[in-house]
Amino acid sequence: MKTLGLLIVLFCTAFLCSCGLPRTDKALTPTSSIFWDVDNLDSIGGSSTRVLDRPCLIETDRGKAVEFDGIDDGLIVDALPLAGAVKFTLEIIFRPDADGPAEQRFLHLQENGSENRILIETRVRGDKWYLDTYIRSPHGNLALFDPNNNHTTGRWYSAALTYDGGTMRHYVNGIEEMSGKLAFSPLGTGKTSIGVRMNRVYWFKGAIRKVKFTPHVLDSKQLLRP
Ligand SMILES: [Ca+2]
Fold first, then answer.
1. Greater pLDDT, 16 or 169
2. What is the DSSP letter of 80?
3. Is 5 within a domain?
4. Residue 15 lies in a domain
5. Distance from first CA to last CA of the chain, Å, rounded?
């Protein structure tokens, strides 16, 4: 009985000591890509997801996707997978539809309790759209957009935003469109909104199929294709 008591004491001591050890938070410092399939309305990427109005789950020739009406549909995911990343690649596969709002903030990574954020947006004019990306941290901010980089709505596209420690770049279908110098410090924990800006303005009209987060810079050849 004495031996059993001793074993229990030793086990509890070991357990308490291990709890006191510093741990690395994998959620804060991912080392490989995290894929989110936007293929349901309950849980995106394994994180709890809040549904704003009625985005629709749809079947497409490339698999399931979620469709947004451009009025009040959105998803807010309780995770910011690029928290802690000093360099990164953010990618999304989406289908922008014609005649949506002129400005659509449809992928928004927002640090809790600050204005620090990473955004992928579109500007839509009739059946044409162009990419607009934005990064903000305490070291500065930069928006990249060029109305001459027009694409046709109603088709699937991939957009990518990268930051390599000094330069921000963005791509459509793996082709670089713009770049600019930026100083940046990593975001802390936060949330991600899909189909709308976090504060429920600038709604997206179209469909979204995948989001991918990578804590380093991918080569253009490695980027997702639609
Ligand atoms: Ca709606």
1. 169
2. -
3. no
4. no
5. 66
Q: What pLDDT, in 10s, does the model give residues 88-123?
A: 999 999 999 999 999 999 999 999 999 999 999 999
Q: What is the largest CA-CA distance in the chain?
A: 81
Distance 85 CA to ligand 1 centre (A): 34
Indicate whether 28 belongs to any domain: no
Q: Which helix (H) or strand (E) holds 224?
A: none
Amino acid at 39: D
Of the CA atoms within 13 Å of residue 10, those in its CB half-sphere come to: 6
Output the CA–CA distances (angstroms, integers) from residue 196 to 107, 119, 204, 225, in the order listed.
7, 10, 6, 23
Q: Is residue 44 included in any domain, yes or no?
A: yes
Find the 53 Cα to ligand 1 centroid distance in Å: 5
The total number of structural domains in the chain stands at 1
> Rounded to the nearest whole angstrom, what is the distance from the C-alpha of residue 52 to the centroid of ligand 1?
8
Expressed in angstroms and rounded, the spacing between residue 216 Cα and the centre of ligand 1 is: 36
Convert the pLDDT of each residue in 6-34 to its tens digit: 444 444 344 433 433 333 344 445 679 99
Q: Contact at 8 Å (CB) between 52 and 76?
A: yes
Containing structural domain, residue 112? 39-222
Rounded to the nearest integer, the mean pLDDT of the chain is 90
Show the 3-state SS of 179-210.
EEECCCCCCCCEEEEECCCCCCCCCCEEEEEE
Write the CATH number for 77.
Answer: 2.60.120.200
Query: Quick one: tokens of 80?
Result: 């910011």
* Alpha carbons 125 and 199: distance in angstroms, whole number: 23
pLDDT of residue 3: 53
